[in-house]
Write a structure and sequence with these properties.
The chain is of the alpha+beta class and 143 residues long. Helices cover 20% and strands 29% of the residues. A four-stranded antiparallel beta sheet has the order 2-1-6-7. Strands 3-4-5 form a three-stranded antiparallel beta sheet.
């Protein structure tokens, strides 16, 4: 008989420890086809997310999924992360936390299934902001 995973319990405990002590809880996630996150922020198959109460709405760290709403570029997005894809949880301020094993084989198999079912859509990189003419940028204080 397989024992239930302790991972969701440890995630909830470290999240609570971070919040109780004034730290900002972050999670690192290995993204696969089951992971619902803003893909434009995924780098090298991973994403790091702020789970603080100020950054999330309706956060639920369940036994199977981490689900919440967060704003990206001012737009509210629904996120859903399988617990088994969370690779770490830590405090941003001091990096205290815990790392977990993620089954990379499952992630790769799930990514392959996603690639077959969904056509690749190239993302155009955003245009850099135009530099002001006349030299160096400056900060203008408005009262």
């Amino acid at each position: 008989m397989d024992l239930p995973s302790t991972k969701p319990y440890l995630l909830r405990a470290i999240w609570e420890w971070c919040c109780d002590n004034g730290y900002t809880p972050y999670i690192s996630v290995v993204v696969d086809a089951r992971t619902r996150v803003p893909r434009e922020f995924v780098r090298d198959g991973q994403i790091v997310l702020n789970l603080s109460p100020d950054a999330t709405n309706r956060l639920q760290i369940g036994n199977e999924m981490v689900e919440f709403q967060a704003r990206f570029g001012g737009v509210a997005r629904e996120l859903s992360i399988p617990i088994d894809q969370v690779s770490s949880i830590y405090a941003r301020e001091n990096l205290a936390g815990m790392a977990f094993d993620v089954n990379e084989d499952l992630a790769e198999a799930s990514d392959a299934a996603l690639a077959e079912s969904e056509p690749e859509r190239p993302l155009d990189p955003p245009e850099p902001p135009a530099r002001p003419e006349g030299g160096r940028p400056h900060l203008q204080r408005i009262k």
